[in-house]
Amino acid sequence: MKNGTDSFVSLGHWPSAGSFGFNTDILATNPINLSVVIGVLIFFGKGVLSDLLDNRKQRILNTIRNSEELREGAIEQLEKARARLRKVEMEADQYRVNGYSDIERQKSNLINSTYKTLEQLENYKNETIQFEQQRAINQVRQRVFQQALQGALGTLNSCLNNELHLRTISANIDMLGAMKEITD
Question: DSSP secondary structure string, 102-125?
Fold first, then answer.
């Protein structure tokens, strides 16, 4: 290592400028070559490197600007979405309240119509009971009348003899004839 540093530091070991040849000492030639190449690159590549860095800087700044614009747009859309969400929530609450009141109103209407229907059924039941009672009373009257008539006919038939029977029939015929003359 000492030889490499010595050859780099001291110029005495360098071949003279008149001769051209290859230096096979890698440690001595690499730092020199690198410093020459870096120097040339800095001198000639300074403008190109500067332009590349400026272009890169502009692209980064444009990307940041675009990102900021997109961020602002996203924030704006988020606020609009939140406003729509609040509006939809308010509408949902309104529908819920209206739905509950509508359900209560329908429930009340159903209860009222059920009471009316029950009242009508009660009235129909009472009318049917009265009708059936009246019909039963009329049937009993008819049976009593028929039995009384049969009893009276039985009594008349047993009490009447033929002569009395013929007189009653002729009296009834005379009455019917008189009624017919009155009506004509």
Answer: HHHHHHHHHHHHHHHHHHHHHHHH
